[in-house]
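USER: I would love a firmer grasp of how sequence relates to backbone shape in proteins. This is the protein in question:
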Amino acid sequence: MNPKPDRGPEMTLPFKSIPVARDKVQSTALVWTFSILLSIAAIALPLAAVRLSLPLWPLARPLLLSAAFAALVYLLRAATLGASILGFLVCFILAQSPAAWSRYLPDTSPHPLFVALIVLFALTYAATKFGRARKEAHGLSEPRHGRQASQIVANLGIAALFAAAGRYDGCVAALAEVTADTVSSEVGQAIGHSPRLLTTGRLVPPGTDGAITTVGTLTGIAAAAIVIAIGAMRHPFWPTQAVLLGAATAGLFFDSLLGATVERRGWFGNDLVNLTSTLVAALIASSLR
């Protein structure tokens, strides 16, 4: 939710409080930790199928879909190779369908989660491209090599783990929060004006940690609602979707709260802030459902 700054003569990049070494340590720890957790979660269902003497062929489709989607993301230069591999694990977890063995297991098909992930990518990719010429002219755009591995686990790791645990409400809320955060930032960078610090309401330079814009926030919440509508297709009625949108919105504002406090003090880097915000959204959704 914090739009980055114009780099005109009257505006300079706000000072980032966290030391580079600390930020790198946090991001590296997240990558290693979630690489292990996501790998375990990805093979949990196949191992369960083997243990129950169930066929493995129902996993062929999720495997192929996940591989194709990860390859597409890499070819679009939306993520680095390492990030695309981690993205494959996330996709595979969300695409797995226990309902394929409904004779043995309850119908808890998370197929809508995979669709929601695709919608998330489409919305955030479009938001990143929106106003790109202006953002590039002022040094605001995302790097052309795409997102790093630490950004993938920070944004999608919690959603994948909640899906693996069968807490699909928490997964959808986490996906929606990520969508809202990215879209609000990108739109705010392109057309947002007069960012204000969440904790004080005072005007601050674009790019200040914890700053928000009205247009960015509203656009981000609308994008989150789209992801929720897709991800919660199995539970389309009130109050499920309202609860999930409320949880995602809470996570969005918690992201800015962390930015205005612990990130500005140099305690948390952006990856850890994003991970914590998705966790908050997922926990709220799981506790209220």
Notes: Confidence is low (pLDDT under 50) at residues 2-14, 99-110.
